[in-house]
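Methods — Computational structure assignment.
A single polypeptide chain was analysed. Its primary sequence is given first, followed by the predicted tertiary structure written as structure tokens.
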Amino acid sequence: MSSYLVYTDSGADLPQEIYARYDIRIVPMDYLLNGESITFDTKAPDHNEHCDALYAAQKNNADVHTSQITPYRYIDTWTPELQKGYDILYISFSSGMSATYQNAQNAADQLKDDFPDRTIECVDSLAATGGQGVITYCAAMNQANGMSLEENAAWLREKIPYMCHRFTVGDLGYLHKGGRVSAAVALIGGVLDIKPLLIIDDEGKLEMVGKARGRNAALKGLLKDYVAEMGVEGVPKVVFITHTSLYKEADHLADMLRQVAEPGTEVYTICETPIIGVHTGPDFFSICGWGKRRKRK
């Protein structure tokens, strides 16, 4: 059995201490800030500085956009490792919100012609931000515990339907601009300080499932939904809270979550990657962890 590397992309959020603990690799993604193209690696030491700069710029009406990872970037990133004899396990940003997964699969198909003895497994996380991060963290733990690439990929695909995202944003206009929600849904967030409560459904797409009056009520709603769904067997007890440079509020939410979570649950707070933050805007919180079910249409 050959050694393999665990990869994700800049759509995932993981704490820096987990990157330091495991050899998790990143396929970087690009975003545009006022016309300047920035390549973002979530494990870079200046992660928070990049995030803080973006969310401050958004508050000043900066022009921001993202772009998909091209097949060529995957090929350039993976080829040197395949030449060294490594196999690849890649956990991608949700196919329900981007063509990133399909581009990765196209790259893998091309590389298999040049490296017929190597294995490249692309796993669609149907997730983003902290959800994609938790899935990747579990993949790294599985690898460290001796799970083969094939076993790991099968485990992830079995468990992904139980990865739950609960989040709120300050302005649905950002999600509408990126094509993630309809214009009708986007109007709701501007009415009387109404904060939408959203999830990522089983197709990896965004869905609004509730509303709250003000940020505090929204955060309590996220926490209530987390408590209702916790208690899944056979998965690590870990929760990622992601936010847009709202460090104090995120720490407070983490403290509240620790009071109600199952004993032994790891709770981390992470400043959200700009790749997702471009679309959520500068007033975002999420709670991501394993749940008894992901909403199904």
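Note: Residues 129-144 form the longest helix (16 residues).
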